[in-house]
Amino acid sequence: MQTTPSFAEVGSGIAASGLEILQVNVGYRCNMSCKHCHVGAGPHRTEMMPTETIDHVLSALGRSPIPTLDITGGAPELHPDFRRLATGALAMDRHVMVRCNLTVLFEPGMEWLFDFYGDYDLEIIASLPACLAADLDRVRGEQTFSKSIEALRRLNALGYGTGKAERQLHLVYNPRGAYLPPAQCALEADYKRTLQERHTVAFDRLLTLANMPIGRFGDFLRSSNNYAGYVQRLAAAFNPATLDGVMCRRLISVKWDGTLYDCDFNQVLCLPLDGDCPRHIAEFDYECLKHRAIAVGDHCFGCTAGQGSSCGGAIKRQKTSA
Question: Could you tell me which of 196, 209, 220, 242 has the fewest CB atoms within 10 Å of its CB?
């Protein structure tokens, strides 16, 4: 019987090819508890990035030529320093991306968010793993779909998702089970047609992401006896052509406590950086980090299976199902 190779065997020797994105996870607090969440975010999580660490992030940006700040969570808008972090990066003329779950815009005390997004040119990456109400609410909770549609309409009214380069609005799709996402271009066309015809909602791009067998989704796989089968499915679909485009090669991830990782997934697994580079944002060294070796594990098959999966969606686009 043929054994499945480890990722270290097929994808070893990956190194960073620059440093274009500083991805900052400001904490695991969220107003939702989605079934596919790899960080296990939710209303009862208390991990939040300290103010001093926010200062270190802004200092690292100011001392480096990194062009993009990617703010994630949890629901990053719930962090009390969210506005200061975003506007601080904008003041340095950096591009700022925010990973938004859409429903947070209607949480008590968060009414200011629409005005904030209306005042600043940010890129919004919004989670919407289904474009039908029953499917989305089953994964993310009751009334999630109606809130998400209303949020998208109001963001459209602010100019997001309407073709303006300075106000991009992208949606994110995750499979609802233990399988790979379909071809991104075909699914994007279906999303655009369905959301426009049924809800008069527009967006720029759909990003398809494979679910990682870690965090809450990993727990689901184990409880349903699907873990081994899913990991084998990812490994069997390994596509070496995706290795050049994996996000870790141009990104560094900052955990809420300031620890540096190659990606958000390594952060959850506490898989430390390789080599002698600094391990904390307070000691950030751009020159060392931009060519570092990447720490890998078998979960990396999730980013390299089929069409691939990165923070920017599919790596190798195709017209047929992955």
Answer: 196
Position 89 scores a pLDDT of 98
Strand 260-261, strand 251-254: pairing: antiparallel
* Per-domain residue ranges of the chain: 16-304
Question: DSSP for 78-129?
Answer: GSTTHHHHHHHHHHTT-EEEEEE-SGGGGSTT-THHHHHHHHS--EEEEE-S
CATH class of 16-304: alpha beta
Is residue 125 a contact partner of residue 247, using CB atoms and an 8 Å limit? no
169 has pLDDT over 70:
yes
pLDDT for residue 148? 96
Q: Sort strands 169-173 and 123-127 into parallel, antiparallel or unpaired.
A: parallel
Query: Residue 33 region, left (φ>0) first, then alpha (ψ -120 to 50), else beta?
Result: beta
The single residue listed with the structure tokens 């959301």 is 195
Q: What is the pLDDT of residue 3?
A: 63
- Reading the block at residue 33, the tokens are 């508890």
pLDDT for 318 equals 52
pLDDT for res 121 = 95
- SS3 state of residue 251: strand
Q: Phi, psi at residue 214, to the nearest 5°?
A: -135, 175
- Looking only at the bridges linking them, the beta strands covering 251-254 and 205-208 are unpaired
The CA radius of gyration of the chain, in Å to the nearest whole number, is 19
129 CB burial (10 A radius; 0-12, 13-18, 19+): buried
Q: What is the mean pLDDT of the chain?
A: 93
